[in-house]
């Protein structure tokens, strides 16, 4: 399978600095960095109780139930992935909170009530083994020609974190393959696993004493034979300790079998290697050029302008060359996509014979189909391109292959079939399926036909709301787009409770998406507004939901992302503040009615709104956040994000990092917004300690209306089942509503 994102990949402080390192500010809360210490968890439970007493009233109970009804709805689309003749799905609902891994046939899937063959009940497994397993996916062994898919490695997390235990599973017998009989069972650890053949795995792992990088990921990869211990497996690949991680994978496409390794130097730089005659051969590209392979093709997406044989290919473009030709030294690159000021490439996906490009034009989707067999007229080696007519304005539509390793449609297979998933803020998600074919009239044009397969129900009165796109102007004159979802005929009197959401990092794009949770928990909530001074009668007021497309994200490609890296991080925060001001200047809201929400890097974003722009917001909901930017590289996986934020141990870099480290920007005598900080003990990506320390410092400073909550499981998502997710979302939404439409405390 070769569906590829454009750019993906998800300690004590003494106050003394080591020689040559930036000085460390005194940290009175370093004791909270011991995640599972008895005293630390006692502090967490005390804060949880305090927050639950504040928030968990009758309105909260109704809200949580309403959100859970959305998450547990049996009318949701059960998204599937095809393997062989079966369509696989993982499903959670009220009766199966940990979920069912199941499959069905295509004919059954197309009915209103598919017949599901349940392969694994995770709730039953958790009860039988006394472990709160969280299902993180399955990796199948490609069978021999004519045989069905049977063996898979299941990734199971004991607490919802990023570390997984990989266990071999037989889908025909519906049982794990017994390790005593040679079944693969890898201890819980961070890493990745790939099948080489029926009796061999390629394993990058931190288990059994295998070395870690400074970012806490696997530093080595080994070749593991069936029945052999992981600890003594032969070394296959290794990266330096200061690099981010090692990844290995085997492409089992018949006729194109290849083993790859990736040395992730940091989040945006990597070395790509292919195994040839027992030796690793590096693919000769700059480390910031993303590389992917499909059959006879290599694709390249540079993060910065790339000069090859005197030709300059701009950042964010997509290029192609024959795989073997490129390794042999050829550099004649076909230009498949070139970005412009409004349009960026978000991802691409190969069917067997065609390439699907998912683009954004001013944050609205556009999809193009490319045919490698047919050159574009006068385009210097580019492939012929056809626009796929499936993208309404202000919507997010993504196309990806159903099964690129199947036979082509002309041979009775689904190899050139594709999925279309379409959604918008007021448009419930729709799943369509289509087929790409070349015409037989001699032109060889590509035609596509697609039809609806499933549609999600409406979970709120979405027809009552209007989606608009606006542009704010940031401090340096940059136009920053944002989406506004609001009741039709919105009164522009500054009194609408408004929730502003953003992310602005790691080239992640925030696109239109339907959310029954946001609809019910925010848009449809109502508060009574008193009579106005001009004699207006009391009236009901609903919520406004806003998504900001600030720099640091990927909405306009790599340049949009790089504009807010490291010493330019402040531009992301200036963009977000500009959107807040624009909402006020347009009369949508006011400081006392405007709240912001963000998680992870978005938590760092709203942490900076709290400390750098407190005059703009009445409330802040800050989730699973980075906040202590002096010590973030020493906490959980923080070292892996130096390329994004900079290295605080380097004095010159700490000088700019300190300007966006919320933990160090708190000051006495400032009127801060009402603040809710939430996290999870089992988050092994960002970790809970930065949230703990920020809340503790604010409380110790006597800042009023500061609240903290920490889920004891759920990983970086903060929840491992629908009930936990409903509680998490209800707490954040209810806090913001109370703060902006009523008052907390």
From TrEMBL:
InterPro entries in alphabetical order: AB_hydrolase_fold (IPR029058), Pept_S9A_N (IPR023302), Peptidase_S9_cat (IPR001375), Peptidase_S9A (IPR002470), Prolyl_oligopep/macrocyclase (IPR051167)
Protein's UniProt keywords contain Hydrolase: yes
Keyword line: Hydrolase, Protease, Serine protease
Name of the molecule in the record: Prolyl oligopeptidase family serine peptidase
Domain of life (superkingdom): Bacteria
Disordered: region residues: 1-24
Span of domain Peptidase S9A N-terminal: 26-431
Peptidase S9 prolyl oligopeptidase catalytic domain mapped to chain residues: 540-741
Composition bias type Polar residues, residue spans: 1-19
Pfam families with a match to the protein in the record: Peptidase_S9, Peptidase_S9_N
Organism: Pseudarthrobacter quantipunctorum
């Amino acid at each position: 399978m070769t569906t590829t994102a454009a750019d993906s990949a998800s300690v004590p402080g003494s106050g003394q600095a080591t020689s040559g390192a930036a000085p460390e500010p005194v940290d009175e809360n370093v004791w909270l960095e011991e995640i599972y210490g008895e005293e630390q968890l006692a502090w967490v439970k005390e804060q949880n109780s305090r927050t639950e007493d504040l928030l968990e009233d009758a309105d909260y109970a109704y809200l949580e139930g309403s959100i859970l009804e959305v998450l547990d709805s049996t009318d949701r689309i059960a998204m599937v992935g095809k393997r062989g003749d079966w369509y696989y799905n993982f499903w959670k609902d009220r009766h199966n909170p940990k979920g069912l891994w199941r499959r069905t046939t295509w004919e059954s899937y197309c009915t209103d009530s598919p017949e599901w063959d349940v392969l694994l009940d995770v709730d039953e497994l958790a009860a039988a083994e006394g472990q709160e397993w969280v299902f993180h996916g399955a990796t199948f062994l490609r069978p021999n020609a004519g045989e069905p898919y049977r063996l898979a490695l299941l990734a199971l997390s004991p607490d919802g974190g990023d570390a997984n235990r990989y266990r071999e599973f037989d889908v025909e017998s519906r049982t794990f393959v017994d390790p005593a009989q040679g079944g693969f069972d890898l201890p819980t650890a961070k890493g990745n696993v790939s099948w080489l053949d029926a009796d061999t795995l390629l394993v990058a792992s931190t288990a059994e004493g295998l070395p870690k990088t400074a970012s806490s990921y696997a530093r080595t990869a080994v070749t593991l034979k069936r029945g052999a211990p992981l600890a003594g497996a032969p070394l296959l690949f290794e990266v330096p300790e200061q690099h981010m991680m090692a990844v290995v994978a085997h492409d089992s496409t018949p006729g194109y079998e290849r083993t790859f390794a990736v040395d992730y130097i940091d989040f945006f730089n990597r070395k790509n290697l292919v195994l040839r005659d027992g030796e690793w051969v590096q693919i000769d590209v700059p480390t910031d050029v993303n590389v992917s392979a499909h059959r006879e093709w290599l694709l390249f997406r540079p993060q910065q302008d790339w000069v090859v044989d005197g030709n300059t290919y701009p950042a964010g473009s997509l290029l192609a060359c024959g795989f073997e030709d490129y390794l042999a030294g050829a550099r004649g690159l076909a230009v498949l996509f070139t970005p412009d000021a409004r349009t960026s490439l978000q991802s691409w996906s190969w069917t067997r014979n065609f390439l699907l490009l998912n683009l954004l034009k001013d944050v609205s989707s556009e999809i193009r189909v490319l045919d490698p067999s047919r050159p574009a007229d006068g385009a210097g080696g580019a492939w012929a391109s056809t626009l796929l007519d499936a993208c309404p304005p202000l919507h997010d539509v993504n196309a990806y292959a159903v099964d690129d390793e199947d036979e082509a449609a002309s041979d009775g297979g689904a190899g050139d079939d594709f999925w279309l998933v379409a959604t918008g803020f007021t448009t419930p998600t729709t799943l369509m399926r289509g087929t790409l074919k070349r015409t037989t009239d001699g032109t060889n044009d590509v035609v596509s036909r697609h039809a609806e397969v499933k549609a999600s129900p409406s979970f709120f009165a979405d027809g009552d709301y209007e989606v608009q796109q606006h542009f704010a102007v940031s401090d340096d004159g940059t136009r920053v787009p944002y989406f506004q979802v609001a009741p039709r005929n919105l009164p522009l009197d500054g009194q609408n409770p408004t929730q502003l959401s953003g992310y602005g990092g790691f080239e992640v794009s925030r696109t239109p998406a339907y959310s029954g949770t946001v609809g019910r928990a925010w848009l449809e909530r109502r508060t009574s507004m008193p009579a106005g001074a001009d004699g207006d009668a009391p009236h009901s007021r609903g919520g406004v939901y806003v998504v900001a497309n600030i720099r640091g994200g990927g909405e306009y490609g790599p340049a949009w992302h790089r504009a807010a890296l490291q010493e330019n991080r402040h531009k992301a925060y200036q963009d977000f503040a500009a959107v807040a001001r624009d909402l006020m200047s347009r009369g949508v809201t006011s400081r006392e009615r405007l709240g912001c929400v963000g998680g992870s890097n978005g938590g760092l974003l709203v942490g900076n709104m709290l400390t750098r722009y407190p005059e703009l917001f009445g409330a802040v909901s800050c989730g699973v956040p980075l906040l202590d930017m002096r010590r973030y590289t020493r906490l959980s996986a923080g070292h892996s994000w130096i390329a994004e934020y900079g290295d605080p141990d380097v004095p010159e870099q700490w000088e700019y990092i300190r300007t966006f480290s919320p933990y160090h920007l708190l000051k006495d005598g400032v009127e801060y917004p009402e603040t809710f900080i939430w996290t999870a003990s089992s988050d092994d990506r960002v970790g809970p300690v930065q949230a703990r320390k920020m809340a503790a410092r604010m409380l110790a400073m006597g800042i009023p209306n500061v609240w903290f909550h920490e889920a004891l499981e759920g990983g970086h998502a903060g929840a491992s089942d629908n009930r936990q997710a409903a509680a998490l979302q209800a707490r954040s939404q209810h806090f913001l509503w109370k703060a902006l439409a009523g008052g907390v405390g």
